[in-house]
Specification:
By secondary structure, the protein is an alpha+beta fold. Helix content is about 25%, strand content about 25%. The protein has 6 helices and 9 strands; from the N terminus they run ααααααβββββββββ. The strands form 2 sheets. The protein has a 6-stranded antiparallel sheet, with no helix packed on it. It has a 3-stranded antiparallel sheet with strand order 6-5-8, with no helix packed on it. Helix 2 crosses helix 3 and helix 2 packs across helix 4. The longest helix is centred in the first third of the chain and has 11 residues.
Length: about 200
């Protein structure tokens, strides 16, 4: 019994997706004076696969794409610029939010760090601290800055040898290089919205 082969299938199990890298790969290859055969041999794939990728007949698997980028010395930021333009808004659904626990304290991711943002990279999360507990991660300080907003409860920010009492609706901002912790001093769980740059907890 024979099976019919899909005419769009390739030897690398590649598949169609709407992000087109082909024009950029072909432009760089031709600018460098490299033939399809040379690129294919150095990347360890077939010449026909490289040709189909350049013509946007298929979109390569990520390992194939990274290998081609390495062979052609292509900057990944340049290669993925189109993808980033098509995804200008980042949405995290409530039921898909990543959480991290440090002891009894939990951090729920609100904004993911974006690779390529460089010095503008940041993360945002909702931190929840039980009564009588406090954060620990910043007790030795780290690079960057932090901004926080108290959503619910009462807190104390311990910043080196200084103490700041915070209530619902208060906000703080500070250099994160100085040792700091946030403690719940109220009688209900503390909930606060926090922004950190560069990312610390959810860094990729």
């Amino acid at each position: 019994m024979s099976t019919q082969k899909n005419p769009d299938s390739t030897d690398g199990a590649e598949k169609r997706i709407p992000y087109h890298f082909g024009e950029k790969i072909r432009t760089i290859r031709e600018r460098k004076g490299m033939t399809l055969r040379v690129v294919a041999q150095r990347a360890g794939v077939s010449e026909s696969l490289v040709s189909q990728i350049e013509r946007n007949r298929v979109s390569p698997a990520i390992d194939t794409l990274l290998t081609l980028a390495d062979v052609l010395d292509i900057n990944l930021e340049f290669l993925f610029a189109e993808y980033r333009r098509k995804r200008p808004v980042q949405v995290i659904r409530a039921d898909e939010r990543k959480t991290i626990s440090e002891g009894s304290v939990t951090y729920g991711e609100v904004a993911k760090p974006v690779e390529g943002d460089g010095r503008h990279a940041m993360e945002a999360f909702v931190v929840e601290i039980p009564v009588g507990s406090h954060t620990r991660r910043g007790s030795y300080g780290h690079s960057g800055r932090e901004i926080g907003f108290i959503v619910q409860g009462k807190a104390q920010l311990h910043y080196e040898n200084l103490v700041y009492n915070l209530a619902e609706g208060d906000s703080v901002s500070f250099s994160a290089g100085t040792p700091h912790t946030l403690a719940n001093t109220g009688d209900v769980p503390l909930k606060a919205f926090w922004v950190v740059s560069p990312p610390q907890r959810f860094a990729p």
